[in-house]
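Thread: "does anyone have the structure for this chain?"

Original post by V.I.:
We have the sequence but no experimental structure in hand. Need at least a predicted one for the grant figures.
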Amino acid sequence: MIERVQEGFPISVVASQFGVERNTVRFWVKRGQGIPLDQMNWADRSSAPHLVHNRTSREMEQRILECRRFLASPENALGFIGPGAIRDFLKDEGRRPPSLRTVARILNRNGILDQKVRRRFKAPPVGWYIPGLDLGLTNMDVFDTVEGLVIEGQGELEVFTTVSLWSPHAQAWPAHSINTSQIVNWLISYWRIVGLPSYAQFDNDTRFQGAHHHADVIGRVMRICLSLGVTPVFAPPRETGFQALIENFNGLWQTRVWHRFHHFDLLSLSARSQRFISAYIQHRSARFEHTPARRPFPTNWKIDFNTYPQGKIIYIRRTNDQGNITILGRQFSIDPNWVHRLVRCEVELDNHIINIFRLRRRDPKDQPLLKTIEYHLPKRRSFRWSRGAVTQNSQFQSAQ
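Reply from O.Q.:
Generated one for you, tokens below.
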């Protein structure tokens, strides 16, 4: 096209021959003027202007930096060095300074701001506070309760919920009131169906932990877990993140079941809840291609609540301002230099010790041993449960 114009053909003829507008021919002829065709750059160029009309000049930018250095020097008695002080200084010189925002951008671009920007760290993986759990090598069931639900004419309701960390299993049990006996019953019947996890996480409710008005209390829920080889884990009080999985499930259950329908009684609520749970498990199944194996529930299993418990109990706690923690109704001194920080307390009932490990969200893989404390759980008889043991044929078994 350029060659034809250079050979003397009119622009209109060349444009008609190549099927383009005449302005296109003029554009390329102008661009290739004085340049050999084999050396010409045929790539498209940006249509943006080379110079922005409202861009601060280099001279003004250098003057702003000089003013900043002068205002920060000992020669300036007042000591104001912010964008406002720089702008006022330039006005006193008779200049027309840019806006405060532009002055701040110039200071930031040249790296001379005194303000330190908060550094954001990557969130730790799920289950980071227990070794192996974050890698999906073991499984954990998380339990919680939903309270404050009211059905007209039926009174208040509660819901006992659970969801698994690395498998699609979940369940919800609505009831008029939830006590420890019902929780034990539901735990046993649920684990008979889906199998046993390695860990079971709870909050610090007395129905899970046992009474708080005595020290060295191992509640029935904890004893059930220990007798089945499941390690109970207790999340720290008033801490966010550790119970996020079950709290998210509780909110989902309330949105998809409780607020979605009008419930006339507990029976209709339970039916809708079970319908949602079945669909939810099927929905989650696609997310877990490989799940940790769950141990089968032992046959002929039984437990006597008066026997001395064996196994491990894990408490996630935060130290106070003196570096102490409180577990099992007792206060233990950990480290005066590790105050208001997270620790993992592993109570080994067989070895009569408590191992304290340091936890840091910023470095979740670094969990060194801080201290080992000798601890002996007192052997005492539970008169309330001395009449017999819980077996698979006992009052705690529920219909599947």
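V.I.: this helps a lot. The first helix runs from residue 2 to 6.
O.Q.: and The CA atoms of residues 169 and 345 lie 28 Å apart.
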